[in-house]
Design goal:
Blueprint lengths: L10 H8 L6 H7 L4 H12 L1 E2 L7 H5 L5 H10 L1 H8 L4 E5 L28 E5 L23 H12 L6 E4 L18 H9 L6 E3 L17 H8 L6 E8 H5 L11 E7 L4 H5 L5 E6 L18 E5 L7 E3 H10 L5 E4 L2 H5 L6 E3 L3 H10 L5 E4 L9 H10 L5 E5 L4 H9 L11 E5 L11 H11 L5 E4 L3 H15 L6
Parallel strand pairs: 1-2, 2-3, 3-4, 4-5, 5-6, 6-7, 7-8, 8-9, 9-11, 10-12, 11-13, 13-14, 14-15, 15-16
Length: 494
Amino acid sequence: MPEMHELFTIPEIVAAILLTDTFEHIMLQNCLLVSRLFSHEATRVLWERCGTSFYLSKGWLRNKIPTVHDLAKITAKDTARGQYYANQIRQLRFVRDKENWAGVHEGGQWCDELLKLEFPLLEAFTSDSCANEYPELGPMKTKSPFYTFGSSANNELFYHILKSSPKLKALDLIMDEPVDLDEPYHPFQSLEEEAIRFINATPILSSLSLPFTYRTGFEVPLNTWSPAILSALGSLPSLHKLGGQILTSASLSSLPPSSFPALRELDVKFSGPLSAIPLAFPNLELLKLELQNPSTFGIGSLGALGKLEILDITFVENEENCFSASDLLAIAHGCPRLHTLNIPSSVTLMMENPCPVGDDISDSTIEEIASALPNLQQLCIGVENRDALTHEAIVSLAKHCPGLSYFSITADVNMRSLISGLKELGEKPLSEMNFMRLYPPEESEHVYDNLPGLAEEFLELAPGLCEFSISEGESGRELAEMVERLIGFPGSRG
């Protein structure tokens, strides 16, 4: 047998080779048999993201990333081998469920096998309950929720992972609904001491997300970050991401000075005046809000977040919401780093939910926003009055924002006028555009002839388009379908 080249005895070289295409897990598994070094590096690549991908195709099931259930089965047979794999894990995703499933061996729940292991390199831990929707993940389910506040019987594994993972920095725990939704459910308010102990147990915590899931048809109880919990979190020197729960302006006003020194990402439901957010978190780069109160001309105060790069706002449903041109301009001029601006969130338009009233919003408003935010890559603007904007708004964005790739807007757009306006800007003014969705007024009806030719003209201006839709108007929808067909069969373009 020929000797192996000396390059293949250098760990960095072997690691670089194995990382060129980590999706081919059969290749990695074959490397386990090449040499001790190849085996170690292949094991590290295979196990460092344990359970973090859940593709359900047959091909993936054959070449899947190892799961926490795989780890438990191995540990049940050989603890030393299980520990060897646990030593490589940097990200761990735990799929949990309330239903009863078979254990690794009789007489115990399979996840209890993990109590035998330490996780010295673990940096990120996620626990969710997505197994409800995917029968294929059945073998990974546990008999009870992975973590339930106030239930010590279910907390042993959770605290074991905390204690055995000195490098743990990120926690993303999807909390289950309470058993009895008729009773008040305030997990943190009623268990503040336990929650604070949990926070203090992870002083290097940099990311914490605690969203809740509920069964359809049940009223969602109020889950808010209490002042005491926020104060404990605010003392963490490295916490840069906070998500889940309801955040209130009142709780922010009671925070000690210099709280949350490193916070850069906030993704929460929010209640109260938005002006409290820049005061508490002046260095935010990402802000995603689900407003719990009707919004009336208050979003402009977010323009004080000068470092903001991503802003996404979902307005409270079935209420009168409003924002003005001056609100949008205050954000555009105050947040020059923005590359993603969704007001409202694009899901609002996709689900055909009512949009806020846009006071004084016009094409000139979008022109000024576009010129102030040349780095925009994603934009969603939706207002109740869908004829407030026209094709001129899109032309302005194409002129000032060359990197725009994802775009949704409520506007009364005449496609022939849009194409004419875009052609004045050059050959491919929408060269980076991948997704474009137009939401015109219901009563709007622009009639187009020669739809195939019009579709080809438009695609010449946006050659990278992957998806295009027009929600209203028979002729407009036919044009969008024609564009979609050409996208699917690029060889058919003229």
